[in-house]
């Protein structure tokens, strides 16, 4: 085997390990070798060998009774390092706590990654309703308030890429026509916030506003989400002012100074 072939094999092994780690989710926290093999299209021997290496380094743990694997403590330590160095995570924490206490709804911080919304931070309210959100969860951007805010302030190429993937209908109010989405994003830029009224999940409404860095670039979104019985359509204008102010508070903590 040549040196180049060995390098290719090493890169392939690293890629397989990363794909395996990324396949674990909150919905599927435990998996067997056969599950991973079928999901990722890898040979069982390849998966087994990779899992043994990951287990030896503490990145996965094998339950001796169920024979299922779950993520190990090494992942937790790495996530702690990432979070501690993410300014937006750190600076948003007190603002989210205060916002949730004041309005009584769950709040998130999210960013756009690989044409999806990913949640970086979440503060639960005292009377939470089960939503499909958690830190690390990915959702489509065109039917969530945070995603629409991030798209509205992204470049045209990103918006075009999202549209090219297709605007799947998730619920009765999902925007599925590209022209309507573009007009909607234009309105969001004008208004300075976005709302989603049962666009993604039935019975769930949300409001989001942009977070700016010290250069004036939108780097994240702050959103609140709750059941339609509490976040009613007629309350969105007043709630949006509080969400916009909270997002601005985070922005200023990030070094942003709005032009008067």
Automatic annotation (TrEMBL):
Keyword DNA-binding in record: yes
Annotated IclR-ED domain residues: 74-256
Keywords attached to this entry: DNA-binding, Transcription, Transcription regulation
Signal peptide: none
Biological process (GO), any one: negative regulation of DNA-templated transcription
InterPro entries according to UniProt: GAF-like_dom_sf, HTH_MetabolicPath_Reg, Tscrpt_reg_IclR_C, Tscrpt_reg_IclR_N, WH-like_DNA-bd_sf, WH_DNA-bd_sf
GO molecular function list: DNA binding; DNA-binding transcription factor activity
Top-level taxon of origin: Bacteria
Function, as annotated: May be an activator protein for the gylABX operon.
Source organism (scientific name): Robertmurraya kyonggiensis
Gene3D superfamilies on file: 3.30.450.40, Winged helix-like DNA-binding domain superfamily/Winged helix DNA-binding domain (1.10.10.10)
Protein name: Glycerol operon regulatory protein
Domain (HTH iclR-type) ranges: 11-73
């Amino acid at each position: 085997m040549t040196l180049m072939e060995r390098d290719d094999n090493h890169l392939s092994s690293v890629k397989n390990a990363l794909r395996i780690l990324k396949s674990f989710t909150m919905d599927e926290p435990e998996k067997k070798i056969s599950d991973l093999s079928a999901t990722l299209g890898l040979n069982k021997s390849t998966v087994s060998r990779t899992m043994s290496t990951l287990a030896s380094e503490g990145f996965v743990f094998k339950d001796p009774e169920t024979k299922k694997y779950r993520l190990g403590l090494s992942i937790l330590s790495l996530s702690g390092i990432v979070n501690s160095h993410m300014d937006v995570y750190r600076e948003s924490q007190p603002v989210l706590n205060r916002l949730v206490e004041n309005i009584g709804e769950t709040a998130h911080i999210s960013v756009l990654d690989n044409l999806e919304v990913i949640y970086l931070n979440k503060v639960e309210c005292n009377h939470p309703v089960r939503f499909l959100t958690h830190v690390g969860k990915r959702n489509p951007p065109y039917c969530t308030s945070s995603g629409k805010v991030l798209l509205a302030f992204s470049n045209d190429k990103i918006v075009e890429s999202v549209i090219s993937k297709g605007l799947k209908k998730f619920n009765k109010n999902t925007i599925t026509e590209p022209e309507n989405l573009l007009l909607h994003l234009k309105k969001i830029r004008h208004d300075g916030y976005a709302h989603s009224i049962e666009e993604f999940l039935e019975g769930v409404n949300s409001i989001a506003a942009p977070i700016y860095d010290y250069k004036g670039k939108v780097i994240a979104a702050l959103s609140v989400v709750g059941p339609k019985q509490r976040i009613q359509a007629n309350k969105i204008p007043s709630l949006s002012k509080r969400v916009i102010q909270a997002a601005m508070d985070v922005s200023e903590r990030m070094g942003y100074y709005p032009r008067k």
